[in-house]
# Entry
Amino acid sequence: MRLAIVTLCLASTFVQAPTAADSHQPIAMERILPSPGGAVFVGSDSQRLIAVEFKADRDPAFRVLSEAEARPWTAGIHTSVATEGFDKRRVLFIERDNASPPEDLPPLPQTTYDQFAAARPQRVRDGYVLGVTEVQESIGPWQRDNGRIWFGKSFYDGEGTTGVGGFGYFDLKERKLHLFSPPEIADWSVSAMVVDPSTVWMTLVHRGETSGSSGGLLRYDRQSGALRKLDFPDIGIRLIQVDGKTVAATDSGLAVVEGDRVKRYFIDRTTDGRVRVAVAKP
# Structure
């Protein structure tokens, strides 16, 4: 069902992180849509869609869009409505649009139990022993780049089901699969990925019995093979490159990566109803 978009009392105020008196649950931004010189983020505050424009060369870089400005960006986003709680509260969801892995990709080789035990000995000590452990790994986020399909692995890690994290690419010319499972990623699924000529960026997540938890932001240098993991407490949903910057849509809002520095932002609603972009404290 397609819903009319109603955005009330939007403002482009750019402020510091919200205080306890006026903060609300952070709004997850679940889409990033490329725009000239920037991008538009779209999320839901459970009642309506919120669109935020990012311009890398503007100060402030973020601006909350009005209903009219947001409409061209939100018109193609599929939503659904559910009711929650005893009061049957109406909740608006953005439907997931994760594309299936391309048919070019061969089946993903599954990690053997011995490989799992060597890569994740702590999980074995947790009770994931031979005979009661099931390894189930799949292709997570992926991106085509210059004759290759890059991808990150994804797996459920709980209730006897598990896997070993990794990433890699399929060379379309050689018809050969290249897989990497360094220790930095062994415990984690890849939740989002973006590839540029020199770097692969990945956000890591633990997918377990409760809500997911972040494993940080991983940078892979395509020339040297060097890995660098950056602290990143939010769960990445989408990644995109804008003007040399890596920009993330997360379960808590937004983030911009420049070099080794990550700057995080929340989308917040004040007590008087205004939507604003707030800088998160480190």
About this structure: The chain is about 5% helix and 45% strand. The domain at 100-251 is CATH 2.40.128 (Lipocalin).
